[in-house]
Amino acid sequence: MATTVSELQINLDVAIDILTRFLVNEVRKAGFERGVIGLSGGIDSSVSAFLAARALGPDNVLGVLMPYKTSSPASVADARTVVEQLGIHSREIPITPMADAYFAMQGEMSNLRRGNVMARLRMIVLYDQSEVFHGLVIGTSNKTELLLGYGTLYGDTASAINPLGDLYKTQVRQIAAALGVPEAIQRKAPSADLWINQTDESELGFTYEQVDRLLFYLVDERYSIEDCVALGFERSFVEQVARRIQRTQFKRRMPVIAKVSQRTIDRDFRYPRDWGL
Predict the structure, then answer these.
(1) Helix residue ranges per DSSP H, 169-224
(2) pLDDT tens digit at each of 277 positions of the chain
(3) Element spanning 245, H or E
(4) Which of 17, 49, 57 is nearest to 33 (CA)?
(5) From the candidate CATH numbers 3.40.50.620, 3.40.50.720, 3.40.30.10, 3.50.20.10, the one assigned to the domain spanning 6-252
């Protein structure tokens, strides 16, 4: 595993305590005791599962495995390992029949279209299982993915609560090591596993270590493009990432509502989501 640059080092004890309390408080404030997580065998979903088991207790967590026929057998095996290590509930629901029925209607489709369909089908399954299990859907998208828009809207980015959304990918790796996530999962190349040999970093065109450090300065420290170039980042890389953050802002917001009344939801009618409970 790559060494984390100093800017991205976090106090692991404090971070894990915050995330554990967050899960307990947010689940219970919504009137629930349980959580449901889509387990891909990757580091993000594994960390969410480890945190949920720690916060809610293993008997209150359901891990749902939703492989497609081209999914890596190793990924499925890693997801099962997480289930066994934590002692959480699990269900395996392949999405192949659902996905292939739609694909057959469409003819030739790009990998992007197919991947988006699969991500949204998995969220259909996950929310349905949340009703059966009576638990909230716990998210697995990290801060890097959210800022880059590297996720499917109403697919893998959907959740009721998200413990990882303020952690860069390299920080999720730190949390994973501290929680005891299996080494094989920590070492594997990040992948949404939406098609054969797909990896995040080959698709993005840069490594998480590279972009996380830049995002730290652009977002957390509010550096300008010129400031980041002065730090030694390539101008083309900085401009590419900055454009991507701006271009994908719509994925980080609830749908914009046209204002026609005196009190518009999320504008003039704004309350905490547990208001009145």
Answers:
(1) 169-179, 183-187, 200-204, 208-215
(2) 344 468 899 999 999 999 999 999 999 999 999 999 999 999 999 999 999 999 999 999 999 999 999 999 999 999 999 999 999 999 999 999 999 999 999 999 999 999 999 999 999 999 999 999 999 999 999 999 999 999 999 999 999 999 999 999 999 999 999 999 999 999 987 766 666 666 777 777 788 899 999 999 999 999 999 999 999 999 999 999 999 999 999 999 989 899 999 999 888 988 877 776 6
(3) helix 235-247
(4) 57
(5) 3.40.50.620
